[in-house]
Amino acid sequence: MTPTTLTSFTPVLASLVSLLAVLPIVYFGRKPNLREGFTFLAGFIKLGLVLSMLPIILAGNTIEYTLWEIVPNLSIAFRVDSFGMIFALVASSLWIVTSLYSVGYMRGLKEHSQTRFYSFFAISLSATIGVAFSANLLTLYLFYEMLSLATYPLVTHHQDKEARTGGRTYLTYLLSTSIGFVLPALIFIFLKTGSSMDFTSGGFLSGHIGASEALVLLLLFTFGFAKAGLMPFHSWLPGAMVAPTPVSALLHAVAVVKVGAFCIIRVYTGVFGIDFLSNLDLGTMITWIAAFTIITSSLIALTQDNLKRRLAFSTVGQLAYIILGVALLTPYGLTGSMMHIAMHAFGKITLFFCAGAIFQATGKKYISEMVGIGKRMPITMIAFFIGSMSVVGLPFAGGFWSKFYLLWGTVSDGQHFMLIVLLISSLLNAAYFFPIVFKAFFCKPEESLFENKIQEAHPCAVIALSLTALGSIFLLSIRI
Amino acid sequence: MIWAFDLILLIFLVITAIIALQVRDLLSATMIFGVYSFLMCLFWAEMGAVDVAFTEAAIGAGVSTVFLIATVFRTSRRSSD
Amino acid sequence: MKIIGFIAVCITGWLLLSAINDFPDFGDPHSPANGYRLSQYYITDTFTDTSVPNMVTAVLADYRGYDTLFETVVIFTAGIAIIGILRRYGSSDKSVGRSKAFIEEPRKDLLIHTTCRLLIPIIQLFALYVIAHGHHSPGGGFQGGAIFGASFILLALAHNLKTAEKRMPERRILTLAGVGIFIYAGFGLACLILGNNFLDYSILHKLLPITPIEARSHSMLGVEIGVAFTVTAIMFSIYSNLVSSSRMKEGL
Amino acid sequence: MILNIICITLVSLGILFFIGGALGILRFPDYYTRMHAAGKGDTMSILLIFGGIALYQMHEVTVANALVAGKILFIAAFIMLTSPTSTHALMRAGYEEGIRPWTRKTKKGQSDS
Amino acid sequence: MEDFFIFAGIAVFVLMLPLLYRIASGPTTIDRLVAVNVIGTKTSVLLIFIGSIFGRVDMFVDFALTYALLNFIGSLAAARYLNRVNPDQQFSNLQTKE
Amino acid sequence: MIEQSPAFILLAPFFTAIFIALVGIRFRWICFPLVLISLTLSVIASVCTLFRVLDEGTLRYFLGGWAPPFGIEFRIDGLNALVAIVITVVALITGIYSRQRVLAETPDKVSQFYTLYLLLVAGLVGMVITGDAFNLYVLLEISSLTSYGLIAMGPKRATLATFKYIIMGTIGASFYLLGVGYLYIKTGSLNMLDIHEQLVANNLLGSQSVMVAFIMITIGVWIKMAFFPLHSWLPNAYAFAPTTTSSLLAPLVTKVMIYVMIRMMLTVFGVEYTFIQLDWSNIVIWMSVIAILSGSVMALAQTDLRKMLAFLIIAEVGYMVGGVWLADQSGMIGAIYHIISDAFMTLCVFLFAGIVFAKTGNRNINAVEGMFKKMPLTMMAFIVGAFSLIGIPPTCGFFSKWYLIQGGINSGHWEFVIALLLSSLINAILFFRIIEIAYFGANPAEGHGHHHTEEPKRSEASPSMLIPLLCTAALLLAIGIFNDPIIRIITDFVVATGLR
């Protein structure tokens, strides 16, 4: 069967459905059950829409839809291919789980302004799916900006001084890089090619620009999508951890940061083209930057006592894996990167859920306070263990596959140094995760607060984190 | 076009303008501005722009001086610079 | 600040003078401004077009009547703006802080009274002459209106503001000013309603038993009268607002 | 021709009076005296000059010229009317302000005020 | 005859010079006012001269008339001003500044 | 009657202004409905005109029936028609908005206010639709005089600001007039197109006096539009004016002057002369770069909300001047499109500032504290305006910036591109500072706050102020999303001038 292109409104709907859900969410703001009902409804519809396109994509087809021409030769257009599909699937399925979790978390903590929280959550998801399904650079940029802005109220949900500082850092990094780096790069490409900037599998830049221009553009894009957290543009991520945990979980382990990585992969593959990049030998430099980020962030993570911050630095490192995988410019590396988006999403969201659950049940934020907590919250800590296994890349969870492909990619490309970097970093990952688990289960609690009674967090939260932990294990059985 | 008148008038205009700027007493400056307007009117007339001269005569002699005096009356007679 | 101003003036002056070499000779009848078809057309065709011998009036009130309409509006605007800024309604005399500085009742002066009684009617008569005679000699609505307004100012100066106010109360000022512009713009609107372009007076011959060319001439007179109304009213209004601390009570 | 000569004579006489007025304004010691020179001299000279020019207009006796001559005489009449009045008003203003008239006995330093 | 008027005009202009001097030097405001008043009358004379030179006195006479009528208003306004303002409150008229 | 539509754009507000001056003193209630009716008529007429232009090409309307160059004409092409629509629509929106503020701020001068208001609109429209260089000056005077009056009707400090404005504005207008005078000396004509034809036909473009005329006109217009070193009148004038006034002046006056600059450069002097023969692009673009940066930075230093916005206008003027002088097709398109979008953006934020002032009586930025809770709709509209000023898609600010940057890259003026991007970032900082204050309060609580203070009552501004604001925000989005037809009209105009 030859690959064909279908025209369908479904991708647009898939993106819009959560945006439309904002209206009932705001309207029923005073009735929490109804409001969250709509959130779930939108989530399921979204997942359904995404799933409905899955068979078509698996058959090797693509779906396209052009909304309207917004600048001559340049339109708001949607396109679904396999890569976008993976991302959309991950994001939309995790949204439902996160909604479940956030019901438990937000109600458990009696947070304020929950309506605002749910509505902006929905908008962010809309933007995420939009990024996944966008067909050209302009659409991508549009949704990328929308995501940055829609997550701002979520990051600063607590409306206190700390939140303000975090929010400031967040916006400063994201907006300055996107306006300062991506936008000019975008316009420059548009001028050089004069085309519609549609992503094509082989890239469309080759032949239009020279080597030095390509280098500049590449750097502009790589650092411009600062959501990917490549050093030195990473420090918004730990700062943004002031957000409520569901936000950190979904947005800063899945949606936002993965959007950054996703955009970079899209640009490398769809705009520059792997061949073009490898001809010019531009990948090596990026791999070095990524390798540096990986090692540094892992080392920083080791020193963090705040659990969420440790997770955040771990995320920075893991994102750099994805970048490194792409920058290897080999098929295996690329596959590894794409898989790592999904695998890491499940693993890291579990970890965040656990951190949130611990905070909600005990009010503890710091790792040093969590000694012996496993006796009190066994399910949570088991899920945490599974999640960390996935992130470290041990062969009991989904993370194994992606790491495997990444390693394979380095080997097949002969980049042994990168192999060593990956291995060292995996060891470091283990070093900053497993002590937590170990202490949780095998050390005696210091304070009387930890009675040997099992006292988990809000049931919704526990269900959610179990689901994602199971998901991580389940992903082991999938091979792409 | 009478070149002699032209010359004299232009010189006088410049002199009057400088005097009007130099004087610190605003009432005097107002009156000197009136002289400037007389000369201006003569200048227009001498160049043959009769309608303009007439307007200058009607406005400059009758009305604008009085307006300026009224303004000085209601504000201050002292110039700050 | 003064030095900056001086430098700016010098630069501007130098810039303006630097182009002088380029100019046509002073008073050259063949310079573009004089010899070009525009001026020639006005000189040769004005009378046949409009039957007004004074071509300046014809250019002002007909060829470029739209400009003149808005020049009248400039004066109107100035008056309204001054009323808007300065006029203080109500009777509380608190803010007339400088009233001590003024001698309240200026002495009556018989000589000035008598002269003004003699002069004011003549000035007004002359103003009317200037308005009406604009077709043939320099003059017209602006000048006539200014002279007419000046006569009221003279009245206020010779007696006091109240006397002049009696002749020309504030309400009447505004009415006069508005009516003046309405006369002018109304001529234009009438043309527009009858089917021609705005201010194309020739169509007005349908209303009166005259030829289109005469219609232009007569309309110009009407327009000048409108201008004169506005200018008269606004001139006095500005004076009375300025001089009376915006209370219309006492002044110079 | 005779008209021209009369006209020239009158105008020259007027200018002579002007010279007097100007000298007075330039040289007289205080403001009352200066005003005196200006008011008197000017009124006279304007009467003479305008009379001369009005006559000059009549070299062709037509209605239009007569009108113009009449207007010129009117101007002279008005100036005769207004000039003394304004002089009077100004004089009065100065007097009420307390400027004392100059007399020979005052010292030079005070004479100017 | 035109030449005569030109010379007469120049003479009147020259006679304006002392007046300008008086205006510039003062010493009192009223001195300046007087000089301005005189310049006003001279202006109307000059206008008539210019009209005679051009041979179109009928045109110029109108605004010479305007001058004659309106010059009065300015002087009167200034005089009224001086009458109305208390001597001790105002900027001294007696001073020679500059 | 349709062929009279260009005249009606101007005549509707004009006649109503005079009528209000006549009867408004006695019947105060009649002013507001009359204003609305006349402005609606004007909007309809301008839209009609635009459609006629699209159908028939350039419209010419001879006033008094005299063909140019003997008489005055309205000469309307795509550019004028668009700008005229912008003016009338902004005036209508502000007109609705003015209902309460005028009664509150100038209760005893309602009729004078509305007279001046409508005359200002008439003046601005007249400047835009006229095809005569001197007529433009006359209407420039009308709009300046009315705006002096409108600003000075504000509170005490407005008077001094107005005085500064009068001085600068008069100098600017005189410069313009001098320039037109020089052109008249050289060409003997006042009609814009005729001047151009004479300049080309008589081969006058190289002469010194034409260059002086060009400089004078440009500098005069720069003063009126508050281009950077000549901007000092603007901030105080706009900050201390009555709220309605500043929300009418801020969007329109500077934009119309930029229109005049474009008209003079493209129609009167022509593309070849302006960009090729003179070739001052480099200098002017550096000036605009400085304007953009200094305007933005000075805006950062302000604590007065409206003053901050006023400094932003200065930066925006830099955008447009730079865009025009890029001598590039997309730069010109961007500049013209920015006229439209900036008018509405500025309108939006100034309406917001007016509402804040009306609600709190405070000029300071901190007055917006807690607005998210109290006035969510107002804040939403403001955020749209702010996003547009920052340049976030899909608001119209993004697209104008898109074209401007495109022009900058195309013509190789990277400094302009960098300035644009930097100023976007500074705008982002500026507006997020306000949003933060509105969201967190001026001094948020320390530590992890779960402060469940009682929800403050919702108290939106009255509908007559809120609806215009929301309309403006909606317009911003609409102009941005459906920019294509507008861009097409502008492109047609720019291509017709021969700019490449």
What does this protein structure show overall?
The complex is a heterohexamer of chains A (480), B (81), C (252), D (113), E (98) and F (500). Chain A has 18 helices and three strands. By secondary structure, chain A is mostly helical. The radius of gyration of chain A is 21 Å and the shape is globular. The model of chain A has no long low-confidence stretch (mean pLDDT 80). Chain B is mainly α and 81 residues long. Chain B has one domain. In chain B, helix 1 packs antiparallel against helix 2 (26-47). Chain B is flat, with a radius of gyration of 14 Å. Chain F has a domain at 280-500. Chain F is mainly alpha-helical and 500 residues long. Chain F is globular. Chain F has 20 helices and two strands. The relative contact order of chain F is 0.09. The chains are: A mainly alpha (480), B mainly alpha (81), C mainly alpha (252), D mainly alpha (113), E mainly alpha (98), F mainly alpha (500). Chains in contact: A-F, B-C, B-E, C-D, C-E, C-F, D-E. Chains D and E meet through helix 1, helix 2 and helix 3 of D and helix 1, helix 2 and helix 3 of E.
Q: From the alpha-carbon coordinates, what is the Rg of chain D to the nearest angstrom? A: 18 Å
By DSSP, the count of extended strands of chain D is 0
Estimated structural class of chain D: mainly alpha
Poorly predicted ranges of chain D (pLDDT <50, ≥5 residues)? none
Main beta-sheet annotation of chain D: none
Amino- and carboxy-terminal Cα gap of chain D = 51 Å
Low-pLDDT runs of chain E: 89-98
| Outline type of chain D | elongated
User: Taking all residues together, what is the mean pLDDT of chain E?
Assistant: 80
Number of helices of chain D: 4
Work out the helicity level of chain E. Answer: over 70%
The computed structural class of chain E is mainly alpha
Radius of gyration of chain E: 17 Å
Q: What's the domain count of chain E? A: 1
> Number of DSSP helices of chain E?
3
Supply database-style keywords.
heterohexamer, C: 252 residues, mainly alpha, 68% helix, E: 98 residues, 3 helices, disordered C terminus
Topology:
The complex is a heterohexamer of chains A (480), B (81), C (252), D (113), E (98) and F (500).
Chain C: H1 2-18, H2 32-35, H3 37-50, H4 55-63, H5 65-86, H6 110-132, H7 141-158, H8 161-167, H9 170-194, H10 212-243
Chain D: H1 2-27, H2 31-57, H3 63-97, H4 108-111
Helix pairs in contact in D: 1-2, 2-3
Chain E: H1 2-25, H2 29-54, H3 57-84
Helix pairs in contact in E: 1-2, 2-3
Compose a concise summary of this entry.
The complex is a heterohexamer of chains A (480), B (81), C (252), D (113), E (98) and F (500). Chain B is mainly alpha-helical and 81 residues long. Chain B is built from three helices and no strands.
